[in-house]
Amino acid sequence: MERDEAKGQRLVALFILGCLLFNYPVLSLFNVSGDAFGVPLLYVFIFAAWAVLIALMALAVER
Amino acid sequence: MLQGHVIVLVAFAYLGVLFGIAYYADQRADAGRSVIANPYIYALSLAVYATAWTFYGSVGRAASDGIGFLPIYLGPTLMIALWWLVMRKIIRISKTNRITTLADFVASRYGKSALIGGLVTVIAVIGILPYISLQLKAIATSYAILLQYPEISMPPSAGGAPLGADTAFWIALILAAFTILFGTRHLDAAEHHEGMVAAIAFESLVKLVAFLAVGLFVTYGMFNGIGDIFGRAAQEPALQPLLTPLEGVAGGYGSWVWLTILSMLAIMFLPRQFQVTVIENTDERHLNKAIWLFPLYMLAINIFVLPIAFGGNLLFPDGSVDADTYVLTLPMAARQEGLALLVFIGGLSAATGMVIVETIALSTMVCNDLVMPVLLRLKRLRLAEQPDLTALLLGIRRGAIVVILLLGYLYFRLASEAYALVSIGLISFAAVAQFAPAVLGGIFWKGGTRLGALAGLSAGFAVWLYTLLLPALARSGWLPIGFIEHGPWGVELLKPLALFGLAGLDQITHAMIWSMIANIGAYVSVSLVGTQSADEHRQASLFVDVFRQSGEGSGGARFWRGTASVPELYNLLARFQGAAAAEAAFADYARARGLRWPGDALPADAEFVHYVEVQLAGAIGAASARVMVASVVKEEALTIDEVREILDEASQVVVYSHRLEQKSRELEAATTELREANERLKELDRLKDEFVSTVSHELRTPLTSIRAFSEILREDATVDAAQRRKFLDIITKESERLTRLISQVLDVSKLESGRVEWQGARLDMREVISDTVTAMDQQFREKGIRVALLLPPQVAPVTGDVDRIIQVMLNLLSNAAKFCRPGAGVIEIALRERGGELRVDVSDNGRGISDEDQKVIFDRFRQAGDTLTDKPKGTGLGLHICRQIIEHHGGRLWVRSRPGEGACFSFTLPIEPAQEQAA
């Protein structure tokens, strides 16, 4: 049960992290012209952040 | 050139494969070797979230605003992080209570209210219609485009086509037939559709593969990688805004946030998501994998959305091709016949997956939460007496599937033409978001009431209708457009797209803001104002505290009291689930308790009735199950107080504090008793002191005279003989008095301390009286007293101490003799038997006793008359002793007198009961 609780808390933390990443003002920092690897910054950021978030979630539940 | 029949053949072949998979999975499930009981299949089945909207619509949205499609997938990714808290709870609740649909869940939470179940069903069905129409539109459009291969031309509007020539109509019918085959071949008690889940998981793979294939082909086949596409897009002035879309083409951060919230709610409350996530879940632990696998799936299916969208925009810059069809038209433009067909199948799988699960979920809802509650309440139909209702249940569900798909088609014809795919879907998202307050509030807040939920759902739904559905119909020409532009009756404040003047927002954001305010506001405020019934209170506690209850079944049973019969319950279950399922359910129950069924007698207790109700809820929903079970058992309603008592965590504390209160009350009582005892003791102490002092005083009087006369005799030798004799007489008399006094004092102390040994014997009062009178005869004669005896010839015997009774008689007689009229004394003694007791009256004709004296003469040392002036004629203890003796025998002693008219002392003695007399 304690493990369940710790897991729940880690996931809530990730939820909050995700809310911060995919929101104003973080998004506005990348909503500018410019690119990384030829792809607009905003798209690179969103997909990269998304992938990292999923990886962290996998870590949180599978650990 | 792709022939129409080739496409149709491939499509049917694909559906055939799906059916084969479903059939295989069902067979495996029946054999007890489930193929879907693993987290990967579970995660893939969740991907039923990705529909034709995702498959075709995302690209369409991305082509116009760059990034507006993404919140629809970011929202669920965020939400799923909370699933460990929220969804695990919903799953646990649903499994414990055998919830079969979202409507059932909400109804069950709010006191198993059939009304709420019906309302949720209506909202879900109406809300989902646009979503279903979106799928029909996508399949019809993609088929029409593919039919033109290699030409790329947009199909004409279906609006004018006759029904028979409209592909979408046939698609709707085919999907209905297919869904009926899938979902309603037989009735499963738990609404598990293993075959369907397996097929859905397969569909998720197909659409992902198809989309990735077209994505890879467009990116690396038609262009030179992602960098190339964006590099070329950067050259195009028309595409510049799409590169930094936020606060531009994609709208502000406000609509970004609202879209995210909307999709967070949709991933939980879309009927099909609830179906696969909650109802079809076979093991809570599957959530673990799903929490990261499902977002990963969404990430994968979205990676190529932007490249395809930008590629399409680059290749079809003139806008002649609908961006919603880029996924299909790009491979067609590159003459990739096979790939185009794969895309068509991918889109078909996305659409069919959604339609199958959604309509099965909705049909279960319609059947369990809308139609059955009504049918069961119609007494005329006598449904409750039908032996087997499984066929009826299946029939209703099949009918519902057809009706829902036809309604979806109707909406497609009415309103879908004017909208892009994503916009249609978002209307449905906003509808199901209305369930959020009632469900989330319901599982975390015990205070939510049935009326609150009703008010919230109704208010939210009304706003949704007004701000989203009506404008959609108006825009398609089915309502006057002035309704949108100037508000109803020209009232600008009521304009459905700028309600109360809230302008400048996109339609979805605007609708969400108002509907959520109305929904949450009504839910919370009505809940706070109202009170819960016992049923609601119980359900609220079962839902909110689900993790605190041990295993299945123990929760609800605590709240049931009544009587039931096993055969009746069996018949009930068999009627709705079929005899075989009922047999199995009873056998399961019996086995779990170490009994055999049939064979052993199952106890029809609360737990068992609850078990049957939960089983039944699986077939017909919680609200109807409750009604049906109540019809065959005699149930005693628990009062709200009783439910509270069982429920509240505080109840233990309350019990303790009750006990504490009781203890303190007892303590208080004991203290009072002690205080009273103490008072009595003090009083007794005082009486004792008084007694001692009175006795001393009484003793001193005769002693003083004895001493005085003895001294005279000793000192004075001159006293003559006559005088001497007189003095000696006085001394003798006073000594006698002293002796009598002392013996009486001893008597009193013995009587009062209870140390007297009473002799019990039968005695005849006539004898006692005549003996006493005889003994006193001499004395009476001396004083010239006439004695009158009024004795009946025979009286019943009494039991008592004969010496003591004689003592009483002697005392009364000597008193009478003392006080009767001097010289002409008359004493009358009467014996009577009356009302179960003997009564003796001793009356004299003396001067009588005053009222004041009557009150005190039975007290110790009290005598009638003025003791200071009159010479005492007795010790003052005689009557006191008499009363003690009579009272000890269970009788009473009292006096009646008036001054000048003599006195009458009476006492009673109880007669023995008859049987003792006989013995």
| CATH fold-level label of the largest domain in chain B | Sodium/glucose cotransporter
Beta-strand residue fraction of chain B: under 5%
How many structural domains in the coordinates of chain A?
1
Tell how many strands the DSSP assignment of chain B holds. 9
Low-confidence stretches of chain B: 550-554, 914-919
User: What share of residues are in beta strands of chain A?
Assistant: 5-15%
* Tally of strands of chain A: 2
SSE run of chain A:
HHEEH
Detailed description of the structure:
The complex is a heterodimer of chains A (63) and B (919). Chain A is elongated. The two termini of chain A are 15 Å apart. Chain A has one domain (2-62). The model of chain A has no long low-confidence stretch (mean pLDDT 87). In chain A, strands 1-2 form a two-stranded antiparallel sheet. Chain A has helices at 2-21, 26-30, 41-62, and strands spanning 35-36, 39-40. Chain A contains three helices and two strands; from the N terminus they run H-H-E-E-H. By secondary structure, chain A is mainly alpha-helical. Helix content of chain A is 75%, strand content 6%. Chain B is mostly helical. Chain B has four domains: 4-416, Sodium/glucose cotransporter (Up-down Bundle); 549-639, no CATH class; 651-753, Helix Hairpins (Orthogonal Bundle), CATH 1.10.287; 761-918, 2-Layer Sandwich (Heat Shock Protein 90), CATH 3.30.565.10. Chain B contains 36 helices and nine strands. In chain B, the strands form three sheets. In chain B, strands 4-6-7-9-8 form a five-stranded mixed sheet. Chain B has a two-stranded antiparallel ribbon with strand order 1-2. Chain B has a two-stranded antiparallel ribbon with strand order 3-5. The termini of chain B are far apart.
